[in-house]
Amino acid sequence: MSSFIGCFAWYFWGYSLAFSESSNGFIGDLRAFGFKHVVGKKDVDATYPEVAYGLFQLQFLLVTLAILAGACIAERGRFLPTIVFFFLWSTIVYSPVVYWIWGGGWALTWRGGALDYAGGGPVEILSGVSAFVYSAFLGRRNQDLMINYRPHNISTIFLGTSLLYFGWLFFNGFSCGNVSVKVPYAMLNTHLCGAFGAITWCLLDFRLEKKWSMVAACSGCISGLVAATPSSGIIPLWASVVLGITAGIVCNFSTQLKYLLRVDDSLDVMAEHGIAGIIGLLFNGIFGSKTVIGYDNVTDHEGGWIDHNWKQLYIQIVYILATTAYSAAVTAVLCFVIDNIPGLHLRADYAAEEQGIDEDQIGEFAYDYVEVRRDFLDWGLPATPKEKISEPIEEVVGVEPDEIYHRVDPDTLSGVISSNEDSQLNEKEDLPRQKED
């Protein structure tokens, strides 16, 4: 649903606010409202239609909302207020920040401009910070329901990371806007960051558990890919190795922030996206290379410290602080206002949490089965309709038949299982006799 709402907001006025001409450095105007005056027009370099650029940039918004959506629901959020939030957030948080850095705003022009190749600010910092603020407003998940908590599906994590890895290559590679040597160069930088991020995170977790965790490898890979987003078309290849290792270390330890601040960021969006995006932007200030920046044959920039452009690092810091503060403040205001509108409170009640957000808010399941408890002492026998049982349930397990699930003593349960097995064996022994008869 986040993709559908984001698509509507971008078509309606999001693209116009982000990329149309304006007399101020903060936000665009409504020249391209409803993609008006866009179809048939070329971009500033006259290399492709502007509508193609608008479509490409739409995917950036949809990815950002998808990252944010996980924190907005996270086993305790309601569906309707997130729809309202996504539309407003796309309009007054995402579009202005995109305008700052890519649409001709202050971040692009101030003292030579900040360096943000593919979205360290608009995609990564915005999603990470806003997810953290939204999670704080939701509050922690009910701890009674977190007992014996397990990850849902490790194979799905691996599959999702694999798809992300493939898509990220083109996400970063073609952000230069033309076909040049910068495309494969940015892709290779992305590869290096993701690989070294995965290796580093996996080694850090191995020192604790002495296991080669797939989840750790995927988490490190994501943090490396995120760090590469603002920097893959700006820094040299050797710097991407350093960046991947740095992102793996810093983001790994940043996952502890949610415990220190008591914010239930269940998907570690702040650690793996917000922090990693900040690291990538800082690396641009130090390792930004004017040679790499110019590989698209269009962009001319002084680079960072390695090219003796000493002011670039503080330009990056100002851009990071402005993006972080703006997204945190506006997201907090949006959450407060929406939460106080009747019928739009952000959090589901306890009964909905216990029932499950899928069933309560959507009425459908990704996997329609009754999960078996992993803890043996939590096992229970489902009640059987009275007309289908041969003997009263209370005689078997000592409970009333109207109960849905019955907590069973292990000895009693093993006795029931043994008696069932004996009866099945007796039935098998009787089969040959029946045939003889």
Characterization of the model:
It is found in: Cell membrane; Membrane. Belongs to the ammonia transporter channel (TC 1.A.11.2) family. It comes from Candidozyma auris. With 437 residues, this protein is mainly α. The protein has 2 domains: 2-142 and 152-183 and 267-362, Orthogonal Bundle (Ammonium transporter fold), CATH 1.10.3430; 376-436, no CATH class. The chain is 62% helix and 1% strand. It is built from 17 helices and 2 strands. The chain has helices at 2-19, 50-73, 79-102, 106-109, 120-138, 154-173, 182-209, 214-228, 237-254, 257-260, 269-287, 290-293, 312-339, 350-355, 357-362, 393-397, 410-436; strands at residues 380-382, 405-407. A two-stranded antiparallel sheet has the order 1-2. The longest helix is centred in the middle third of the chain and has 28 residues, at 182-209. The protein is globular, with a radius of gyration of 27 Å. Mean pLDDT is 84; it is low at 372-377, 386-410 and 431-437.
Quick structural gist:
The chain is mainly alpha-helical and 437 residues long. It has 17 helices and two strands.
